[in-house]
Amino acid sequence: MEKNRNQKHTKETFYYAISRMLERGSYYGLRILIILHMTGIVLKMERTEALSIMGWFTGSIVVSQILGALLGDLIIGNKKAIIFGGIIQAFGAFTLCITSTTGIYIGLFLVVLGSGFYTPNIISNFGKLYLNKTKLLDSGFTIFYLAINLGSFLGMSLIGYFGEEYGYNIGFIISGILMLISIIPILISKDKIEDKKFKNEFPMGKRILNISLAFIVVGLFWGIYQISYIRISDLQFEFSEISSLNIPKHLWQTINSTLILPISIIAIIVWTFFYSTQFFKLMIGFIFGAISYGIIYLIPGVPTEKHTILYIIALLFLGIAEIHIAPIIHSILTKYSNPKYLAILISLAFIPTRLFGFIFGLFNDRFYDNPTLGIKLGIIAMVIISVGLIVYVFWEKKNYLQQRV
Question: What's the family (predicted)?
Fold first, then answer.
């Protein structure tokens, strides 16, 4: 680990982070209300139909992000795509106030389309802020990731509360207003991103290898997380019932997000002043992930109160793993790609995650019947990937030292 010198975050970093926080608040707040709205006393949809619509909704976002990235990179520009997407997404939230199935379909279509324009282009433009200070990329994207977590937590809490207390339409209106406000930091930012003049210093083979490895290992992390979460959520319910820690039951559902907050802040501070490679961070992330799943595996099928602290420690380690993995994928893409096509590459990065999630999801019935099976497979997969990353990191270090000789 080496010390960073003469590099610092700019105010544009925080403009973009605030915009993303507000957008995620709008999006996740809307999501928490939409199924309740569809199955409520007015529309009276069957829950299976509502869940099917939501499945199509979340799946379509991957396609819309590719479309939005293509238009942002090749035709209208990333900044205009962010603003355009934000406006469309806001109109989608407002359209959901039309109490009919037509209003639902049009509203969700507009939210999907708007998110497709907004998401890959804001991630791309954020990364381009660091083209000439790549050692701050990890810290910068962790700020961005922290904003996402804060936004989703606040959105689900506040919009969910107002929607349930004062009517779903109030929740949708708040969601749309938040989305419109999220555009303001982008409008006032004065970033000058000269990606056309930027030339990547790394050879093409190294760039392709590192980007491909990042796609695979990060996709695997979220796939593993999906199959292990069945056991984690079971334990979460058990401990909310038996724990004497005076934690309200509804807060047990947000304990992961709560732990992410201090971990993120520590990582931001450390990575702002000290630099280590992205693949070293991925290695650390998978090692902590393996340890976390190992601790969860030690908790018996029917836990007692004395296992509560063990569970919280496991979640803490899993949070450390997440912070060393989730933001780093975008750092790697920014560092090794051609910035002219960064939004396109970012939109494609969502595909491996969804693909591995779909593949692992085919076996969900087995994991529901035997939740510890997901933890066992998670431990094995995390250990194998950790070993592979250890080998790769030392191989990279050896090549770097040879080049300097």
Answer: Belongs to the major facilitator superfamily. Proton-dependent oligopeptide transporter (POT/PTR) (TC 2.A.17) family.
CATH number at residue 357: 1.20.1250.20
Paired tokens of 388: 């592979």
User: Pick from 102, 167, 402, 142: which is nearest to 281 by CA?
Assistant: 142
CA-CA distance, 125 to 128, in Å (whole number)?
Answer: 5
Residues 338 and 286 both lie in one domain? yes
Q: Check pLDDT > 80 for residue 240.
A: no
CB-based contacts of 204-212 (< 8 A; 24+ apart in sequence): 206/336, 207/336, 207/337, 210/279, 210/332, 210/336, 211/332, 211/333, 211/336, 211/337, 211/345
In terms of Cα–Cα distance, which of 387, 131, 99, 134 is closest to 276? 134
Continuous H helices in 299-337: 308-323, 328-336
SS3 for 388?
A: helix
Q: How confident is the model at residue 244 (pLDDT cuts 50, 70, 90)?
A: low
Q: Are residues 163 and 214 in the same domain?
A: no
What does pTM read for this prediction?
0.91
User: Do 169 and 251 belong to one domain?
Assistant: no
Q: Nearest Cα to 107, choosing from 169, 186, 184?
A: 169
| Tokens describing residue 118 | 């907004």
**Burial of 258: CB neighbours in 10 Å, binned 0-12, 13-18, 19+:** middle
Is residue 180 domain-shared with residue 223, that is, in the same domain?
no
Using alpha carbons, select from 74, 88, 182 the residue that is nearest to residue 124.
Answer: 74
